[in-house]
Amino acid sequence: MVAVQPRTQYSGDIAKLLLAHYDRHVRALPWRSPPGTPPPDPYRVWLSEVMLQQTTVAAVFGYFEKFTKLWPDFAALAAADDADVMAAWAGLGYYSRARNLLKCARAVVAEHGGQLPKTSVELGKLPGIGPYTAAAIGAIAFGERAAVVDANVERVVARLFAVETPLPAAKPEIRAAVEAITPADRPGDFAQAMMDLGASLCSVRAPQCLLCPLQSHCAAHAAGIAEQLPQKLAKKAKPQRVGMAWWIEREGADGREIWLVRRPPHGMLGGMRALPDDGWKAREDGDSKPPFPADWRYLDGEVAHVFTHFSLSLRLAVTAAPVDESCLPDGEWWSLKRLDSAGLPTLFSKAAKLAIRARHQD
DNA sequence: TATCCGTGGAT
DNA sequence: TATCCAAGGAT
Description:
By secondary structure, this protein is α+β, with helices and mostly antiparallel strands. It folds into 2 domains: 8-228, Orthogonal Bundle (Endonuclease III, domain 1); 240-360, Nucleoside Triphosphate Pyrophosphohydrolase (Alpha-Beta Complex). It contains 13 helices and 7 strands.
């Protein structure tokens, strides 16, 4: 293993070359300000960075637009209803981010006078802000020379210095290298340039080294092993689970209604509205037991859904409202006309489609 | 350190 | 179709 010890003049060259490339190829994004202009509103930097955690730029656009329109600053978001924020986040995934987003906004208002602290150390103490996000906000919004390390940067750096240690063991080594090449001038642009490079030319498969501004400095390219880096440990296979969801319907004042529950605040889809289900989880199939005895009609077909660590085959059973509503699990009647505004996570959104399709076939 | 936590696009 | 992967954080 070659120790990563970039020499200062080379480090400076890397930043200089990369920033020059960034100035010519920068993407205009709603949360980004052009190179050489004042940094964006820290609220927008924070919001975008949280949304972008493990999420593609394309998926974030619409949510960023919606959130900034509904809640333009920390004060507005801190004052929002939890249910509204969770519903607005529905479909974006990793729902603990939305819960922590609210916690963070309220902490900023209650403890920081409505403004983000300006150092990555202080930022990292807030809910939902880890090492990456703290460094990214510090660098992009406040010009701090912080080492911003995400999966893109790990890939670029692993190749630049031919780090052959597999991830995640290579993380400390890679972080040290990022600290060594991050410039004091324009650290925010440098971080975004590194991420852009990883998201474009320095891609996982078929990197376009021919067009890369850092090609002449890249040890992996010189050795002809760029595409093989970074190395990663093999992932475990996903278990396949089965579960049931219960579609309980009645005639309400404004047309048909279904019974929705609120999932517990932690765990899978925590805090989100949902259909009642039979308790399926990552390590266990559901128990198939209906919430109350009724004339359940089991629908044909299933909802196939893939989570990060398991796959679920969800089946659906339908019934009319029970005579005795006290047997319903905690929840609320929800008009089918405004089901879109319930903010169901994708799994249950798919299930609702299946149920509604089945109704129309009757 | 390892596991849990969504979703949709690319290949 | 199956697999991999993304601007990670919390526990």
